[in-house]
Design brief:
CATH superfamily of the largest domain: Lrp/AsnC effector binding domain/regulation of amino acid metabolism (RAM) domain
Strand order of the largest sheet: 2-3-1-4
Radius of gyration: 20 Å
Number of strands: 4
Helix content: 40-55%
Strand content: 15-25%
Distance between the termini: 9 Å
Shape: elongated
Order of helices and strands: HHHHEHEEHE
Structural class: alpha+beta
Number of helices: 6
CATH class of the largest domain: Alpha Beta
Largest sheet: 4 strands, antiparallel
Protein backbone atom coordinates (compact mmCIF):
# COMPACT_ATOMS: atom_id res chain seq x y z
CA UNK A 1 0.00 0.00 0.00
CA UNK A 2 1.47 3.33 -1.05
CA UNK A 3 1.13 5.62 1.98
CA UNK A 4 2.22 8.67 -0.07
CA UNK A 5 -0.63 8.12 -2.52
CA UNK A 6 -3.11 7.74 0.35
CA UNK A 7 -1.75 10.86 2.06
CA UNK A 8 -2.19 12.85 -1.17
CA UNK A 9 -5.79 11.66 -1.50
CA UNK A 10 -6.92 13.02 1.87
CA UNK A 11 -4.03 15.14 3.09
CA UNK A 12 -1.11 14.29 5.33
CA UNK A 13 -2.69 15.68 8.51
CA UNK A 14 -5.95 13.79 7.98
CA UNK A 15 -3.91 10.65 7.30
CA UNK A 16 -2.13 11.12 10.64
CA UNK A 17 -5.46 11.57 12.43
CA UNK A 18 -6.86 8.44 10.77
CA UNK A 19 -3.75 6.48 11.74
CA UNK A 20 -4.26 7.45 15.38
CA UNK A 21 -7.96 6.52 15.26
CA UNK A 22 -7.24 3.18 13.57
CA UNK A 23 -4.67 2.42 16.25
CA UNK A 24 -7.05 3.35 19.08
CA UNK A 25 -10.52 4.70 18.27
CA UNK A 26 -11.01 5.59 21.95
CA UNK A 27 -8.05 7.97 21.97
CA UNK A 28 -9.16 11.38 23.28
CA UNK A 29 -9.10 14.26 20.81
CA UNK A 30 -6.67 16.05 23.12
CA UNK A 31 -4.14 13.21 22.72
CA UNK A 32 -4.64 13.04 18.95
CA UNK A 33 -4.10 16.79 18.75
CA UNK A 34 -0.76 16.47 20.58
CA UNK A 35 0.36 13.67 18.27
CA UNK A 36 -0.55 15.46 15.02
CA UNK A 37 0.35 19.00 16.08
CA UNK A 38 -3.08 20.65 15.85
CA UNK A 39 -5.44 22.14 18.39
CA UNK A 40 -8.21 20.00 19.83
CA UNK A 41 -10.99 21.94 18.06
CA UNK A 42 -9.13 21.65 14.73
CA UNK A 43 -8.83 17.87 15.15
CA UNK A 44 -12.50 17.59 16.16
CA UNK A 45 -13.52 19.60 13.10
CA UNK A 46 -11.43 17.39 10.79
CA UNK A 47 -12.86 14.20 12.32
CA UNK A 48 -16.42 15.52 11.97
CA UNK A 49 -15.77 16.47 8.33
CA UNK A 50 -14.34 13.01 7.58
CA UNK A 51 -17.41 11.43 9.22
CA UNK A 52 -19.73 13.65 7.14
CA UNK A 53 -17.83 12.77 3.95
CA UNK A 54 -18.10 9.04 4.71
CA UNK A 55 -14.34 8.54 5.09
CA UNK A 56 -14.91 7.48 8.69
CA UNK A 57 -17.87 5.11 8.62
CA UNK A 58 -18.00 4.10 12.26
CA UNK A 59 -16.21 3.03 15.42
CA UNK A 60 -16.22 -0.60 16.52
CA UNK A 61 -15.33 -2.85 19.40
CA UNK A 62 -13.29 -5.95 18.60
CA UNK A 63 -14.08 -9.07 20.59
CA UNK A 64 -12.09 -12.27 21.08
CA UNK A 65 -14.41 -14.99 19.71
CA UNK A 66 -12.82 -17.70 21.90
CA UNK A 67 -13.51 -15.74 25.09
CA UNK A 68 -17.22 -15.39 24.26
CA UNK A 69 -17.65 -19.08 23.44
CA UNK A 70 -17.16 -18.98 19.66
CA UNK A 71 -14.09 -21.21 19.40
CA UNK A 72 -14.73 -22.51 15.87
CA UNK A 73 -13.91 -19.93 13.20
CA UNK A 74 -13.85 -20.58 9.47
CA UNK A 75 -13.91 -19.09 6.02
CA UNK A 76 -16.52 -20.54 3.69
CA UNK A 77 -16.68 -19.85 -0.02
CA UNK A 78 -19.86 -20.41 -2.00
CA UNK A 79 -20.35 -21.00 -5.71
CA UNK A 80 -24.00 -20.58 -6.61
CA UNK A 81 -26.01 -20.34 -9.80
CA UNK A 82 -28.93 -18.75 -7.93
CA UNK A 83 -29.54 -15.01 -7.92
CA UNK A 84 -26.96 -13.19 -5.89
CA UNK A 85 -29.53 -11.06 -4.05
CA UNK A 86 -31.56 -14.13 -3.08
CA UNK A 87 -28.52 -15.95 -1.71
CA UNK A 88 -27.37 -12.88 0.24
CA UNK A 89 -30.82 -12.55 1.80
CA UNK A 90 -30.60 -16.14 3.08
CA UNK A 91 -27.01 -15.69 4.29
CA UNK A 92 -28.09 -12.65 6.32
CA UNK A 93 -30.44 -14.95 8.26
CA UNK A 94 -27.52 -17.03 9.63
CA UNK A 95 -26.23 -15.12 12.69
CA UNK A 96 -22.95 -17.09 12.87
CA UNK A 97 -21.80 -15.46 9.61
CA UNK A 98 -19.89 -12.36 10.71
CA UNK A 99 -18.68 -11.08 7.34
CA UNK A 100 -19.72 -11.70 3.75
CA UNK A 101 -18.03 -10.49 0.56
CA UNK A 102 -18.74 -10.82 -3.16
CA UNK A 103 -15.55 -12.01 -4.82
CA UNK A 104 -14.08 -12.89 -8.20
CA UNK A 105 -12.81 -16.33 -9.13
CA UNK A 106 -14.44 -19.74 -9.05
CA UNK A 107 -16.62 -18.88 -6.08
CA UNK A 108 -18.87 -15.82 -5.86
CA UNK A 109 -19.04 -15.28 -2.09
CA UNK A 110 -16.68 -15.64 0.85
CA UNK A 111 -17.89 -15.57 4.44
CA UNK A 112 -16.25 -15.49 7.86
CA UNK A 113 -18.02 -17.65 10.40
CA UNK A 114 -17.66 -17.78 14.19
CA UNK A 115 -19.59 -20.47 16.03
CA UNK A 116 -19.52 -22.58 19.16
CA UNK A 117 -18.91 -26.11 17.80
CA UNK A 118 -17.93 -28.11 14.75
CA UNK A 119 -21.43 -29.61 14.80
CA UNK A 120 -22.91 -26.11 14.41
CA UNK A 121 -20.40 -25.38 11.63
CA UNK A 122 -21.56 -28.54 9.87
CA UNK A 123 -25.17 -27.31 10.12
CA UNK A 124 -24.20 -23.92 8.62
CA UNK A 125 -22.37 -25.62 5.77
CA UNK A 126 -25.48 -27.75 5.14
CA UNK A 127 -27.64 -24.62 5.01
CA UNK A 128 -25.27 -22.99 2.51
CA UNK A 129 -25.07 -26.11 0.34
CA UNK A 130 -28.75 -25.59 -0.47
CA UNK A 131 -27.55 -22.64 -2.58
CA UNK A 132 -24.55 -24.25 -4.25
CA UNK A 133 -21.05 -25.63 -3.78
CA UNK A 134 -19.12 -24.68 -0.64
CA UNK A 135 -15.48 -24.88 0.39
CA UNK A 136 -14.62 -24.49 4.07
CA UNK A 137 -11.31 -23.68 5.76
CA UNK A 138 -11.17 -23.71 9.55
CA UNK A 139 -9.08 -20.86 10.95
CA UNK A 140 -6.33 -22.19 13.22
CA UNK A 141 -4.86 -18.82 14.22
CA UNK A 142 -4.44 -15.27 13.01
CA UNK A 143 -1.06 -14.56 11.44
CA UNK A 144 -1.49 -10.90 12.34
CA UNK A 145 -4.40 -8.81 13.53
CA UNK A 146 -6.42 -6.62 11.24
CA UNK A 147 -4.21 -3.85 9.94
CA UNK A 148 -5.30 -0.32 9.32
CA UNK A 149 -5.16 1.56 6.04
CA UNK A 150 -3.05 4.36 7.54
Amino acid sequence: MDKNLLNKAIGETNAKILHELETDARLPVSEISKRVGLSGPAVSERIKKMEDEGIITGYTTELDPDKVGLAVNAFITLKSSLTHAGVIKKIEEIPDILECYSITGNHCIIMKVATYSTKRLETIIGQLQQFGETNTSIILSATFNKRGIF
